[in-house]
C-alpha cells in the first residue's frame, strides 16, 4: 500500500467507503428479514397461552364458577397459562436483543466453579421433585477463574441444566442424573452438562438451537418450555466468541458443552474487573 501516491490513496478511500456501505445495507436487510420472521413465529407462539387462559376464563363466566372446586382449578390453570406467557415474553425480549446485537456483554473475572455450584443449589428443588440427582464429580474444583459475562453465563448454565432435568429419562425405575464437569483445554475451560435422559435423535441435532424448534412438539407444551432456551444459549456464547456443542444418543442421554476463556494474564483481580467496566 503506497499511501504517498495521492491517487491511490483516494482510490483506496472510495473502495473502503463502498465496502462499508455494502456492509451497512446487508446488515439492514438482515434486520428486516429477522423482524419479519420473528413476528410471524412470535404471534403463533403467543396464541397458545392466550387461547388457553381465555378458554378457562370464559368457561368460568359461562357458569363453571358456581362450583367452588372447578372455580379454583380453572383459575389456577388460567394463572399458569399467564405465567407461561410472562416467561415467553421475557425470553423473546432477550432473544430479540441478542439477535440484533443490542445487548452488551459485561465482562469480568469470576469463579466459574462457584457459579456452577450456585446454579445447582438453585435447581436442586426442581430436580428432586422429578427424582433427578444433580451431581458434581468428586474432584470438581473449588476455584476456576474465567473471563466472561457472569450473569449471561449463569443463564447459559441454568438453561442447559433446566433442559437436562426436563428431558430426563421418565422411566419408572428412576435413576436419572445430571452432572456438571469442567476440563482445562489450553487457555480455555470447557464446561459440560451431562444427563442420562431420553437423548435427541441425530436428525434434530443441528436444529434444536433454532428458535421455537422442539423435538417433540406436544410434550414440550406439557413441560412448559418456550422453545427459546437453546437459541438464547447459542447467542450468548456467540457473543463470547464461543459455541455450544452437543453429543447425544437416544435413550442414553446428552452432553452439552462450551468453552470460556481462562484469565488472560497475571494482572491482579481488581485490575481485571476495572478493565471490564
Ligand atoms: P424448550 O423450551 O422446548 O426446552 P429449548 O430451546 O431449550 O426449548 O430446547 C429445544 C428442544 O431441544 C427441546 O424442545 C427438546 O426437544 C430438545 N432438548 C434440549 N435439551 C435436551 C436434553 N438435555 N435432552 C433431550 N432433549 C433436549
What features would you describe in this structure?
The chain has 277 residues and is α+β, with helices and mostly antiparallel strands. It is built from seven helices and seven strands; from the N terminus they run ααβαββαββααββα. A hairpin with a 3-residue loop joins strand 6 and strand 7. Helix 3 runs parallel beside helix 4 and helix 4 runs antiparallel to helix 6 (229-239). The longest helix has 56 residues, at 6-61. The protein is globular. Adenosine-5'-diphosphate binds at residues 163-164, 166-167, 195, 197-200, 208, 213-216, 220, 225-231, 254. This is histidine kinase.
Topology:
Blueprint lengths: L5 H56 L6 H32 L7 E5 H18 L2 E4 L9 E5 H17 L9 E10 L2 E8 L21 H7 L5 H11 L5 E5 L3 E10 L6 H8 L1
Parallel strand pairs: 2-4
Antiparallel strand pairs: 1-3, 3-7, 4-5, 5-7, 6-7
Helix pairs in contact: 1-2, 2-6, 3-4, 4-6
The structure holds adenosine-5'-diphosphate (ADP).
Adenosine-5'-diphosphate (ADP) binds next to helix 4 and helix 6.
